């Protein structure tokens, strides 16, 4: 299973944001004679890098990715049809914000699986950073 176009585009946007943050930090640090623990000194200027989270801990969903331990979780073992039924029972056809899934491992993993199987539709709202999801009926 390869990376789809949307995930690739999101990864590019993430990298561009990271580069913009790094350039902004470099501008702020120009001429400052201190060394950050995450930076290096060059003979002509100071280059500082910020740690905003590695790509391994993010997805285009904005939630943590799965790891090997997550494969043993009930949400990863359940059939997709059961996850669809559970989603429908919990939220019906309502739009659900991505923030609902940040703390709940079961629903975070269910979201990842359902999105990967194209069982959910996703939209980004103009007034918030998190996406919203709805089951495709």
Can you tell me about this structure?
There is one protein chain. The chain is an alpha+beta fold. It has 4 helices and 5 strands; from the N terminus they run H-E-E-H-H-E-H-E-E. It has a 3-stranded antiparallel sheet. The chain has a two-stranded antiparallel ribbon with strand order 1-2. The longest helix is centred in the first third of the chain and has 25 residues, at 5-29. The two termini are 25 Å apart. The model is unreliable at 33-60 (pLDDT under 50).
Task: Give me a quick take on this structure.
The protein is of the alpha+beta class.
Q: N-to-C terminal Cα separation, in Å?
A: 25 Å
How much helix is in the residues? 25-40%
Mean pLDDT: 76
CATH topology name of the largest domain:
Arc Repressor Mutant, subunit A
Number of helices: 4
Shape: elongated
Using only C-alpha atoms, the radius of gyration works out to 19 Å
Largest sheet: 3 strands, antiparallel
Low-confidence stretches: 33-60
Main sheet: strand order: 3-5-4
Secondary-structure arrangement, i.e. CATH architecture of the largest domain:
Orthogonal Bundle
Q: Structural class given helices, strands, pairing?
A: alpha+beta
Q: Quickly count the domains.
A: 2
Number of strands: 5
Q: Oligomer, anyone?
A: single chain
* Percentage of residues in strands: 5-15%
Order of helices and strands: HEEHHEHEE
CATH class wording of the largest domain: Mainly Alpha
């Amino acid at each position: 299973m390869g990376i789809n176009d949307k995930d690739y585009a999101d990864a590019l946007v993430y990298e561009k944001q990271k580069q913009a943050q790094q350039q902004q930090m470099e501008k702020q640090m120009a001429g400052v004679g201190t060394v950050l623990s995450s930076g290096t000194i060059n003979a002509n200027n100071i280059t500082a890098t910020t740690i905003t989270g590695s790509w391994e801990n993010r997805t285009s969903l904005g939630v943590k990715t799965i790891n090997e331990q997550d494969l043993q979780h009930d949400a990863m073992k359940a059939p997709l049809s059961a996850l669809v039924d559970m989603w429908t029972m919990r939220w019906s056809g309502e739009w659900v914000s991505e923030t609902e899934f940040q703390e709940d491992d079961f629903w975070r993993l269910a979201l990842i699986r359902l999105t990967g199987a194209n069982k959910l539709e996703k939209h980004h709202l103009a007034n918030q950073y998190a996406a919203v999801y709805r089951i495709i009926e």
